[in-house]
Amino acid sequence: MDAHHEHAHEGVNYDGIVGPALALGFAVFIFAISFGVLCVNAGGSVPKAMAMSLLVFTGASQFSAVSVIAAGGTAVSAVVGALLLGSRNAIYGVAVAPWLPGSLKYRVAAAQFTIDETTGMTLVQNSPARKKRAFWVTAASIYGFWNVGTLIGALVGNSFDTQKYGLDVAFPAAFVAMVAPLLSTRKAQLAGIGGAVVCLATTPFVPIGAPIVMSAVVALIALVPTQRKTHKS
Amino acid sequence: MSWTVVLVLSLGAFLLKVFGFVVIGDRKFPPQVEAVIALIPAALLCALIMKDTFTAGHDLQIDARAVGLVVAVLGVWRKVPIWLVIVLACIATGITRAIS
Question: Which one of A145, A174, A205, A227 is most buried, counting C-beta atoms within 10 A?
Fold first, then answer.
């Protein structure tokens, strides 16, 4: 995931884009296979799993929705939780839009591919040409790996007894892998702990799935001023 | 998992992406809004980890899944490749279930 090349040159030099894009693709491939397996086991089907990956195309949201449905949560809590997770893509869109100018059709198409990996790869490049190139190369890699992985997982998923092989733990294991890089700031760590506490504290009392939605409230700690340690941005 | 869930989620996820990329575009979100949205994934993903490890319906419980979670955390901490983290966590839980 952190295979960024340090030596990027000016001009038309696309070194260090395809390699990292493929490396990200492979990581995503593993998540995608897990997603396909878990989705069909949560009452999905191969077409539904594929529709999710082709259309929703934002991994954490897809996992979240399937996880809530698998636990017996309502459709509303599954969708709201997943969309709260997907709201960060709106921020990413603002960040990458200046580097992807074009017609309305072009920008709407680019928006569909604006996710963690494409945004990260775009923003670390050092020239407009490289940024644009990195966005689309990463988009192609992730979209391809994500959908092929989902298909493989969904096709083999029905033959697994997820409980017996411990495959239900693929959910939290995948979430641990997704959240780890986010916990780099004090506030993010507090948000993580807070979200965990809210989930456990509310689970006995509210509808299944609702604790996930409620945990998002913890993000409001972003509004608390940081004391003493001033971060110059 | 109904088709309604799949399609509503597809549309909602797409509209969020278009909202940031096309509608907001070169203007900016207020910094406070951006800061709050940026913290949502950490909170939600940790909540999901708790739900998928320590709950069953409305009950809190510690079972074989906790073993898998410990393995996953150790794996991610030790920078084990993601595919191996997921596989090892599942194996750990599977074995714990088989022998308990």
Answer: A174
